[in-house]
Each structure stands twice: as C-alpha cells, then as structure tokens.
Amino acid sequence: MPPMPTTVLDVVSPTRVPVNPELPGPEQRRSTGGLRRHDVFALLGSVLAAVGLASWLQNQLFAFQGVLAFIIVAHALFMLFYAVLIGLTESAPVVVDKLVTTLVHSLGFVMLLALAAVVTFTFGRGWEALAHVNFFTQDMSNAGPLDPLTAGGVLHGMAGTLIMISIALAISVPLGITTAVFLSEFPGRYAAVVRTVVEAMTALPSIVAGLFIYATIILGLGIERSGFAASCAVTVMMLPIIIRSADVVLRLVPGNLKEAAFALGSSRWRTVWTVTLPTARSGLTTAVVLGTARGIGETSPVLLTAGLTTFLNLNPFSGPMVSLPLATFAFVKSPEPSMIARGFGSAAVLMLVVLVLFWLARVIGGRGPGQLTPRQNRRITENSRALNYRYLAKDVSIQRASRALSAEGKSRRSAVQRTKGKPS
Amino acid sequence: MSDRTTPPDADRPANRDETRIIPVVSGSRDLLATEILELILTDSVLDQADAPDSGVAPRRLTTRASTQDRVFEWISRGAGTLVLTIMSLVGLFLLIQGNQALSVAGFDFFTTEAWDPNSGNFGIAAVLAGTILIALTAIVLAVPLAVATALYISEYAPRAIRQVLTSIVDLMAAVPSVVYGLWGMFLLEPNILGVSQWISTYFGWIPAFAVTGFDPNDPLASPTVFTASTFIAGIVVALMVAPIATSIMREAFTQAPIGEREAALALGATKWGMIRSVVLPFGRGGMIGGTMLGLGRALGETIAVYLIISPVFAVQPHILEKGSNSISALIALRYNEASPFEISALMAAGLALFVMTLFVNFGASIIIAKSRSGASSD
C-alpha cells in the first residue's frame, strides 16, 4: 500500500507571511523604467571608443574611404563595444534587448534621415532655379542649354502636368468610382472576375502601361505623340489603383446604414447616392488624391507617349507635351550645370505638388466613413432641431384647431401646459 | 437581386397591423417608452400565435426594380465591363504583340544575352538577371530597414510622435521616382563609392562582391569602376520600396493583441523578448506580404534605375561593378528608334516583367489577406 495522502498533508508546513519589523514606514515605489547612470556611461563610452577606433582605422591604416563607410564601420564597432560593456554587468537577454533597441533606433533613424535627405537635397539644389521668377513664367523655347538660369523655365512642364492629370482624372474618377460601386453593390461571379483583373493590373509596371499606349494609339492608330496619349497611359496606370482603394473604402461603409435606407423604402440608386457615397466621401477623396499623386509623379508612361518639347503646348491633341517629371528627366540628362539646376528646380516643384496633394489627402481622409467633422455634426444637429420645431409647431396648430372646433374650454389649460413641458 | 440586402421578413407584419400601429405612432408623444415596448411585444407574440392557424401562406416577395434602378445597374455594369475590357486588352495586347517576337526567338528568348532584334539575335537573359539582381539587392537592404522602422513606430517611438512618423513614411511612398533617381544620381553615387570599394576590398572573395579590373592593393586604383552599379541602383530602389513595406508591416505589428504583449512582459520578458515572442509571430504575414509587395514594385521600377545604371547587355553577376540593366530600363532605352519587330520584342520583355510582378503581387495579396481578418486595405 502506498502511504495515505493524509500523511503528506501533515508534512507540509503552513505558509508564513514573513514580517519585517525593520521596514521603515510604507513601501517605496520602485521605478522600473528610467535611465541608470551606468547605462549612460556605457553608451557614451562605446560611442567614443567606436568613433576613435574608426578614425584611427581610417586615418592610419587607410582601411576605408568616405564618410558613409566611416559611419557604417563606426556603428558596427559601437555595437560591439556596447555589447561587451553591458555584458560586464547584465545577463544575456538584457544585452540582446539593448542591442536590438539600438539597432531598431538606428535603422529607423536612417530611414527618416533618408527622407529628410531626399526632400532637403531636392529643395536645396532646386532653390537656385526656383529663386528666379522666370522659372515659373517661361518655357524653354528661348533658352538653350548654355543659357543662365535667368532665361527659360518649366511653364510648359507645369501646364503639361496640369492638362494631362486633368484628362486622366476626368476619365479615371467617374469610371473608377462607378466600377468600385459596381463591385460593392452587385456582387457576384462577374464582379469577382472584374475585381481579380483589376487587382492583377495594379501589378502592371508603369512602363508597360506606357508601352501599351505607345503600341496601340501611337503606332497602331497612327496618332502622333501628344498629351492625350500620355493621359491615356497615366489613366491605364491610375485606374486600377483608384478602383482598388475605392473598393476597400466602399466595403467599409456599415451595412446597417444601407439596410436602414432600404427599410425606409429607398431604391438601390437612392441608397448609393444618398447613403453609401456620402458616407464614404472622405475615403473616396483620399483614394483619388493618392492615385493623383502617383499619376503626377510617374515619368515612364509619359516618356513613351508624350514626346519631348521645349515649347509650351496647351493643346493635348496635337504636338508633343511635357510633364514635370519628364522635364526633370530631360534636364538632368544634360551635362550642363544650368540644365541640371533646372532639373532640380522642376523636381522641387513636382515634389511641392505631391506634398500639397498628400497633405490634402490627410486633411480630408483622416476620418473613417461616417465620422463627421465638428462643423458637419453641428449642421446635422441644427437641421434635426429645425425639423423637430417644425413638427412641434404643426402638432400645436393641429391641437389648437381641434380645440377650437370642440370648444371645450376646461381642458385648454392643461393641454397647453403639456405641450410646453415637452422636451424638444 | 435587391432583396438580398433587405431582411427577409422586414415588411411582413406591417400591413396587417397598419390600423393598430398608426394611432400608436402618431400619439407616441403621450406614451411612455415601456408602454410602446409592451404594445410591440404583445403584438409580435400574437402574430406568432396567429400565424400557424390562420392558414395564410407567406406573401411571395417580388421586387421590381424602378427605371432609375435599372439604369443605375446598367451603367455600373457597363463601367465594370469597360474597365474589364481595357485591363484585359492590355494583357491580351501584350500577349499578341509579344507573341510575334516570341515565336521567332522561341525559348532562346530567355537564354540569349544580347539585344539586337533586327538581326534576330535577342533575348532577355541579361536584362532579366539584371532586373532580379537589382530587385534582390533592394529587398535585402529594404527589409531590415522596413522591419526596424515599423518596429520603431509601433513599439519604441513615443506615443506623441507615432502619428507623425506614420505620415512621414506614407509620404515617402508618394515621392515620385524621378526625385529618388536624382537623389541617387547626384548625392548617393559620389558618396557610396568608398563603401563599394571597402566591400569589394574585404569581401571580394564572395563572388557577388568581386569586381573585375579592381586591384585592392593598388593605392591609385580609380573608384570609377564602382559607379553606375547594380548596388547603387538597388539602394535607391530600396529607399523607394521600404516605405511601402514599412506601412504594411507597421499595420500588422500594431494588431498584435495587447493581452499577450502584457502576458509576455509579466512573465519577465525584456522588450525584445516580448517582440520576438508576440509581435513578430503575429506580424509574420504582414512582414512577408509587405516584402513581396515591395519586391513587386522593385521589379517594375524604371526611371530611378535608368538614371543610375549604365546599360550592359550581358549578365553582370558582380553587383558592385559598373554596368547593369533591367527590363524596364531596356524598354525606356530602346522604344524610340525601334522597328515594329523590336517593339514586339520589347512587348515580350514587358510581358515577362508583367507576369513576374503579377505572381509576386498575387502572392503578396494572398499572404496579407490571410494574415488579416476583415476587409483589407492598401
């Protein structure tokens, strides 16, 4: 027989809560985060050691050249020293944690630095050209490659970009949003096919879109290179992007809103027009604006289809037309410093346009479907209050009329009181 | 068609109780909510009790679309069909046009390293290899950058600046490629040569990093052999695709459940321990999907690559060495003076590129969709 379980119970001593009589007063709250002194010392020490060793390697041993190589080597050395220094006092998991923290911070910093570099470099180099007013008011027809920046500008590029993107938007926004509505309102096998093909086409490289228009419209139909052809290429590229993001936004519209509209007897079209589209308005706008930003920035479809010119051309149907990215591309291929400066100038203008579009998308699209701005909320509240007053007034007048008809004076007082006391 | 979204019995009791409900509604100001509720409840109970023995078959629901609705359906179906036609036309046209060149070259199209379609000697082996090498270099550089930035934004950054950082990263994805190209050409290229030289000096024994014509022991060796290389193009493309990958990864990381994060921390995990055991496994789908979406973009990038590389028509396996090529750069380079047959050959090359990006993107969207619940977004 095994021993009875009761004997085990006997052996277990009762748990005692240790009492520490010397504990002074209430317990102090320990800080779990925060920086300790030796963390700072380890960090500073390894930075100094890494920079010192790296500069010794560079200046005495000529192991590498260039600022970038120095930064990379110094960072690698820093990680090494830091690991060793922390390893003296901490356990292995803490060392790994600290190393990963440093790595994540430095790579994130590199990413943000790269963006800052791209933006400031473009604006910095472009400033030389942007400072001249003629850069915005002239085209390049009177300026040769050797002319200084006081002659010539990118008016033709700005006008071309504006015309091309307007045509592209005029085609792609109605078509794209109607298709997105079709995908969300009439689901079925056919819609699934359309959706799959559209999703596949978001993978279409922009140069292939340009090549398609080049081969069909320019070579096939014999139409010369023009702004319209370029708009078609940009449309082919933008359309799947707009449809896809609009489809996502429309699918986020709450189903109970639509059902409420149907239950009130609204037709399908009225529901889409008065419920679905207004609810998704901000998201749809964002989809269009972001598609526009992509379309404006694309060079390769325009390169193949618009042709190259230095003249301002306002007619999209005849003659070559240049957009800002294409003008940038053409400028920087020249070896002349003034042309390169113009290239940076037009890149800066392009960047500015994209920044403004992006900011616009953020302002409009910061809210989900159905979320209103304070102003919209106020308007709706006012509207509904006005309606309420109208109904109330109607009610009161009906009551008055009925009272006048029945001419029962004794209940008049209480009825008036009841109407007054009603919460609106 | 239209009855799918309306509840099946939405209008059933309405007609029967019309006479009783209407006075209740119009006089509802004078009724308490509980009384109304009571009325409704008893009504519905009575309905259910009445239904079996009343012997009336459920009313057949027929919906007849109004003219407005029919026009609406007709128009939106038409738009869908138009889009489908345009999009299929692109694919079909590529296929038909490219087929002419493909049928002449046969399978050699994928193995020939030259581009001279007019003499019949052409193939995409060199440009295909270049495209893949540039994209791989870009992805190898972009993925650590994207993972770290996404982790920084979702885990390490102070809460106050998270939204700003997210906006900055999204903005980076919207910067035009020609601007990245300029940056790579004028700022990165002069500064990166030292790094290229250093890598090839110390890691030249790895075949990919070897550079022909560069002797590390020659102190006067010119660094010009390192210009216009796959490596530099890869860095620029990496910067272009990293923001796209970052925003997808960040979204996946922030969805890691708070309860499991706190459980890991409560069990004594360090922050990295928590990330490794909770955040990364939850975000794995997003990480793979973001990487593949970035790869799709990297494969199709044209202008930035075109501005940086100096085109060669041979497979260039040394990524640090001058000269590279990609399919899109080839199209941008050659379309202008192309004969109709060369256009067909370029179409075939474009088709190959399209098929490649298509596979990568479809893979990405499947993986992203699997890793998420509910509606997917960009």
TrEMBL record, chain B:
Residues 128-364 form the ABC transmembrane type-1 domain. Belongs to the binding-protein-dependent transport system permease family. CysTW subfamily. Part of the binding-protein-dependent transport system for phosphate; probably responsible for the translocation of the substrate across the membrane. CDD domains: TM_PBP2. One of its GO terms (molecular function) is phosphate transmembrane transporter activity. It is a multi-pass membrane protein. Its main location: membrane. Pfam families: BPD_transp_1. This is Phosphate transport system permease protein. Signal peptide: none annotated. The chain crosses the membrane at residues 74-96, 122-152, 164-183, 226-245, 343-369. The gene is pstC. The lineage of its organism: Bacteria, Bacillati, Actinomycetota, Actinomycetes, Micrococcales. It comes from Cryobacterium melibiosiphilum. Gene3D superfamilies: MetI-like. GO terms for cellular component: plasma membrane. InterPro entries: MetI-like, MetI-like_sf, Phosphate_PstC, Phosphate_Transport_Permease. It is found in: Cell membrane. One of its GO terms (biological process) is phosphate ion transport. Keywords: Cell membrane, Membrane, Phosphate transport, Transmembrane, Transmembrane helix, Transport. It comes from the Bacteria.
